[in-house]
Amino acid sequence: MKVLPAVDILNRKCVQLVGGDPDTKVFEDADPLTIARKWAEYSEYLHLIDLDAAIYNKDTNRDIIKKILSEVKIPTEVGGGIRSIEIFRELIDAGADKLIMGTSAIKNLELLKNIKDKFGKKRIVIALDVKGEEVSISGWTQGSGLSIYDATKNLEEYASSYLITSIGVEGRMKGPDIELYKKLLSITNVEIIASGGISSIDNLIELDKIGINKAVVGTAIYTNKIDLKEVRKVFG
What we know:
- The protein is α/β, with parallel strands linked by helices.
- The protein has one domain (2-235): Aldolase class I (TIM Barrel), CATH 3.20.20.
- The chain contains 11 helices and 12 strands.
- The protein is globular.
- The termini are close together.
């Protein structure tokens, strides 16, 4: 099991939200770079999200994203507002290991195809955010009309990994949606990255047992429910 600490940036600050709602901050810090450096001391990989780009289509955090990519020396996946091949190229050139495509992967298959042809699927993580069994888009503000199971099958040829977030448990510290992950593991060979609700090392052990090898952890490490030093002891 590899734990990917989440650094979510909103209005140039590092935040953690409940259910993706900008009005429900459970953590806020004015220096995302310092936070990223802290987590990089205990992890092999970083999960970096530009919430302003994802929710409001604003690129006001791009300089911070690039500074983190330049100064934090572990591989990083970056998401939020990846809506063109130019933005994709800009962030890869800035040092991102992979880029996370969410809404654009659902709504713009031509863009997804072009990015795969140009950069290879190894650079693409497709984020599928789930409410019930429906994939949500546009920063969790809209339904897509597409079931998570259809999306998982339809997009296999474009993704090195699926980042699966269960919106109902995100930020609520009540544990991940184990049954959802079991179903998805049974229908796809694409790597599944778990996200949402992970609140203890026991949750990580449970995910590991069902075959999930990577998990994004946010609120739990910011509120000291999970200690990354202990995670390293358990999983090596």
